[in-house]
Structures are given as structure tokens and as C-alpha cells.
Write a structure and sequence with these properties.
This protein is an alpha+beta fold. It is built from ten helices and eight strands. α1 packs across α3, α5 runs antiparallel to α10 and α6 packs across α8. It folds into two domains: 59 residues, Orthogonal Bundle (Arc Repressor Mutant, subunit A), CATH 1.10.10.10; 179 residues, GAF domain (Beta-Lactamase), CATH 3.30.450. Strands 5-4-3-8-7-6 form a six-stranded antiparallel β-sheet, with helices on both faces. A two-stranded antiparallel ribbon has the order 1-2. It comes from Pandoraea eparura.
Length: 252
Amino acid sequence: MSNQSNAAAVRAFRILEILSASGTPMTLAEIVAAISLPKQTVHRILKQLEAAFLVSREAGSRHYEPSSRVRAMAVNALMHVGPAAARHAILQQLVDKLGETCNLSMLSGDDLVYLDRVETDWSRQLKLAPGSRVPLHCTASGKLLLAFLPRARREKLIAHLPLRPRAENTITDLEDLREELGETRKRRVGTNNEEHVPGMIAVAVPVMLDRNRACAAIAVQASAQRRTLDALMTFLPELQAAAEAMAATFNE
């Protein structure tokens, strides 16, 4: 590869990096300011990335964001390379302490995706392999990560979520969901009281990149026949310690 091609590839990657770090879609002017390249150069690279389905825009929008293809690649990388083994070990140690199934998940588009999951041997389990996707509005981790999003991005996302009932306690009203997310952010703990699957409850804590940004969530899940939400809440010190250890793997 020529030096010129090399430089172009690095610039394209840098733009993807800027878009991914932003957390919200960006205009051409915002990207130009962040990368300090001529406007025409950035526009040309964006067109190339868009043609390759690496960045996307909503119809009629001037705002760019990483495409679903890039998001899927990022999830696969987090699941299989780098500190993946260290993350699995943290989850396994947590399961050994709590005796309940635990998972690590993150936002991916309009869903929650499991990066890893360690199950116990209890007979009644919801089998969800790494890579599985579940709804945001009725899961402990989904509601928690929604609650930590910047307000504008959160409002845009929940306004388009299909709030379909999954179980008797699923939140299906947008105003009720807004209220739940506000409480969730205050307490920094997500709960699922038989909202996704009948008979299953969960508690989640954030994996923080810094004081205000959550990159993932760790949750403990149990059968409502054996545990209560109050009982799962007693696991918060262990969950938070695991989340702190997990955060170090995202900063490596």
C-alpha cells in the first residue's frame, strides 16, 4: 500500500473513531472541527465511508453516525479479542460468589447485546448466548444504559422504541418509561421485576468509563421463585466491585 493510501486509510479510521466516541450523530462541520482537516477532504472521506456502509445518515439528515456494520464489528471485537478472557474471568468469579447467572452487556443500536454471560446450573434458566440481543425497555441493563445516555440521544431513542409487552410487568407507556429511567439514573441501579420473561428478575449496575459515562452493564439474574428483588439488591457491593474491575478492561 502506498503512503498516500495509507494516510487515507488512517484518516478514514480516525473519522470512524471520532463518530464512535461522540455518542451522538455529528454534522460535517463538527467532524471537521474534531479532526482538523479541510472540509472537502472530510466530505470526500465521509462519502466513501457511506458508500461502503461504514457510516450512515437518516433520510434527509445532515448528521453522520457509525453504521450497524461498524457497531456489529465493535461488538464482535469486544466479545472475542483483547481483554475478553479477563472479562469472562471477572464474570465467572462473580457467579461463583453469588450463585446466580450474571452477564455483561452493552447498547447496540436499538437493542441490548450480551458480550458475555456465565450461567449457573439451576434447572430454570433463560438461555442467552453471547451475541444475543434483547429489548432495552424491559431489561435491567437496558433501562440502566438508557438512563445514562445524554438526554437528547435518550429521548430520540426511546421515542422510536417499540414498547411491546413481554411479560405482565413490562413498561409499555412512554411517560412511565421516562419516569423509570429518571429513578434508575438517580440510584445508578437497573431492575427487572419480571418485565422481560415471566418468573425472572434481575439487578444491574453500570460499568463506568468516567464519572458520567457508562460503557456497559453487569447484571445478576435469578428466578423469582427463589429470590426477590430485595435479595438481589444485597448483591450490589459484589456487582459494583466487579463493575469497577470490568471498567479497567475497557480502558486498556
